[in-house]
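Attaching the record inline, Q. Sequence:
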Amino acid sequence: MANREDVLALIRAAYAARDGGDTDSVVSAFHPEGAFTLMGNKSALELTGTKQGHATLREAFRQFTEGFGFEGREILAELVDGDRVAVHSRVTVRYNPTGKAVGTEILDLFRFQDGKIVELIEFADTAQIKAMVS
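Structure, as predicted:
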């Protein structure tokens, strides 16, 4: 069973790294076999789907960070149940090539193993994001 404060501290550090564009620090929060899944329709947003393993995650998060900035993250709720954590947050997403920004809410479902993120499933409004890039 994961320690509540330890997993929340790791999540907050990973969010701060993501918001600051620090891809290596985001990836270091993941277990070597860790997976990230952005839920959504691939035809709506190419970045949806599952990426697994540090090398693949590093490239995926580099693409995310180059394309989209996250600003002003506000954590609305954190629920911890053993090795699983759910985080509901509000954030401004900025499409870096155009500077267009939109406020949205995100739900992240984490699973931990050996003190690292082994699975992260993210639910975001991919249709809203697609509209930004169109």
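The beta strands are 30-39, 49-52, 68-81, 84-95, 101-113, 116-123. The mean pLDDT is 92.

More tomorrow.
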